[in-house]
Design a protein that fits this description.
Oligomer: single chain
Helix content: 40-55%
CATH architecture of the largest domain: 2-Layer Sandwich
Number of strands: 17
Number of domains: 5
Number of helices: 16
Strand content: 15-25%
């Protein structure tokens, strides 16, 4: 007969074991449910997640690692199925013989430090740049990666824009100083031409002027790249400019190149821009494409309006202002090597023996000056496509014709004047003085803004017009004008500059500046600017008198 106490003890032990078994089952179910949730989470993550198992040598060192699991995001990026790559090494998965060797330092570091390790890597096989974090556990490690390819591309574009801006500042400064020298060369050549009678000497002077004018064209391209040349803004239909450009190309390029015109747009597309510069940009890019097709090919123009719903919007580095007119020029030429594509817009960069390297750089500057964007897609052997995006504007509104100047205003504008010329370049002061003196004007000069202010304070009542160089040491042209205006609110002044004053001209005019003259200038340009300044003053005075009456 069994001991009752033993039976009771055995029953208690059974109950205890059953309770522990139920707890284990609950824990197992909880763990299974948690693992399922974690797996579901991993499977639905938009980021890549892959689990790797180490393969060690006999001495315990890491030999390689094999894939244990990868989520759909990783499989999609790799264009693989899990069944095909499970249990395989990076070399076998990606076809890169040096994959293990390349990533070994990273894997070693993960297990040496035994903590999450953050790193970044480019994957040529998938065309991605991933920001990775790897976490060790046992003889496994989990890696998850965020695709930052778009951000990296954006950073590179911003870096390239900053580089181009820096080059632009340098180019603009050089072009400005060069323009001052060209003003002297062209101006004195003009004086010589008027004074000489010997035919041989006249021909020599004309050759000097011709050579100098070629340099003027070069500085204009530099200023276009630097976004500091003169703009002649107008509202026009871009489709007409594109078709005119195609017409010009049709008479000049290789007959083996076929040009495809853009199709019709839903409505006419208008720009407020410098039509001449925009057309030059189109021509430069198109001719660059033609040069890439020496044996013939196709040059395709397209034209459309784009807004923030267009895919190209995401590629714009700066804050887009849109909507834009999108002009694309595609060629079927040799394409551009990836190693030089970032340099193609730099001044003087060229791969042609007979090129000057200014065509694409001036096109770049022109589009940027119009608050636009210029992008390029290219691959060797696949041709290139340039995308030009310029802010679109509304159709122009008909403006009533302004009344012509009265005979009295025209006569007074052309009468002899006393003119103060302010420029820090002695050569330009002398040149302006001689040009204007030959037209019957009396000229006094000042080498800086301070000297001009002192001169005007002493004799301002006898000075009819002041010509101010915009960029001078000390007070610049506008600052000097403000000082003169304190002395005489009715001072008549115009600004001389080799830079573009389009973006600031409205504020200059509101401040009271009566006009502008662009360097390099001829005598006729200078006298015409003075005449307009006097006429603008007379017109403003007459308007004020009528308003008072």
């Amino acid at each position: 007969m069994s001991d009752p106490s033993s039976t009771e003890s055995l029953n208690l032990r059974i109950e205890e074991l059953e309770s522990q078994l139920k707890a284990c089952r609950r824990s197992y179910n909880d763990l299974t449910e948690r693992a399922s949730r974690n797996r579901d989470l991993i499977e639905h993550l938009p980021h890549e997640v892959h689990v790797w198992k180490l393969v060690r040598n006999e001495d315990g060192s890491i030999r390689t690692w094999k894939l244990d699991h990868a989520n759909p995001a990783a499989l999609n990026a790799w264009s693989k199925s899990l069944d095909d790559i499970i249990g395989r090494t990076p070399h076998e998965i990606f076809g890169d013989e040096k994959a293990t060797e390349r990533f070994m330092p990273i894997v070693q570091k993960i297990f040496d430090e035994n903590e999450p390790y953050f790193w970044e890597e480019e994957y040529p096989a998938t065309g991605q740049t991933l920001q990775m974090v790897s976490i060790p556990y046992g003889d496994h490690f989990i890696s998850t990666g965020l695709d930052i390819s778009d951000q990296k591309q954006l950073q590179e574009e911003i870096k390239q824009l900053q580089k181009m801006d820096a080059i632009g500042q340098l180019a603009g400064g050089i072009a400005h100083d060069f323009n001052n020298q060209l003003t002297g060369i062209l101006g004195y050549a003009e004086l010589l031409e008027d004074a000489l009678t010997d035919s041989t000497a006249l021909e020599d002077v004309r050759n000097i002027r011709t050579s100098a004018m070629r340099s003027v064209s070069l500085t204009a391209q530099l200023l276009a790249f630097a976004r500091k040349g003169t703009l002649e803004m107008d509202v026009f239909e871009i489709g007409k400019i594109v078709n005119d450009t195609i017409s010009i190309l049709g008479h000049t390029i290789n007959r083996a190149i076929k040009i495809e015109k853009p199709g019709p747009t839903e409505t006419p597309l208008f720009l407020r821009a410098d039509a001449g510069l925009i057309q030059n940009a189109l021509l430069n890019i198109a001719l660059n494409g033609c040069d890439a097709m020496p044996n013939g090919g196709t040059l395709t123009f397209s034209l459309k309006s784009v807004d923030d719903e267009d895919p190209i919007w995401t590629r714009l580095a700066a804050d887009p202002v849109g909507p834009y007119v999108h002009i694309s020029i595609r060629d079927t030429g040799i394409g551009i090597d990836e190693e030089i594509i970032e340099k193609i817009f730099e001044p003087f960069f060229t791969t042609r023996e007979d090129g000057n390297g200014m065509g694409l750089s001036s096109a770049f500057g022109t589009i940027k000056r119009h608050d636009g964007h210029i992008l390029v897609d290219s691959a060797v052997g696949e041709g290139s496509c340039f995308h030009l995006l310029v802010p679109r504007c509304d159709a122009p509104v008909e403006q009533p014709e302004s009344p012509s100047r009265t005979p009295d205003a025209r006569r007074e504008a052309d009468s002899p004047l006393r003119i103060l010329v302010v420029d820090d370049e002695p050569l330009l002061r002398d040149l302006c003085s001689r040009m204007l003196s030959r037209k019957g004007h009396q000229v006094i000069t000042a080498s800086n803004g301070t000297e001009a202010t002192r001169e005007y304070a002493e004799d301002g009542q006898n000075i009819d017009v002041v010509i101010l160089d915009m960029n001078m040491p000390g007070p610049n042209g506008l600052e000097t004008f403000r000082e003169l205006k304190r002395i005489d609110p009715d001072v008549v002044a115009l600004i001389a500059s080799g830079y573009n004053l389009e973006q600031t001209s409205e504020s200059f005019l509101q401040a009271g500046i009566r006009g502008f003259v662009h360097k390099p200038f001829r005598a006729a340009d200078l006298t015409k600017a003075i005449s307009r300044a006097i006429s603008a003053t007379i017109s403003a005075t007459n308007s004020a008198t009528i308003a008072e009456d």
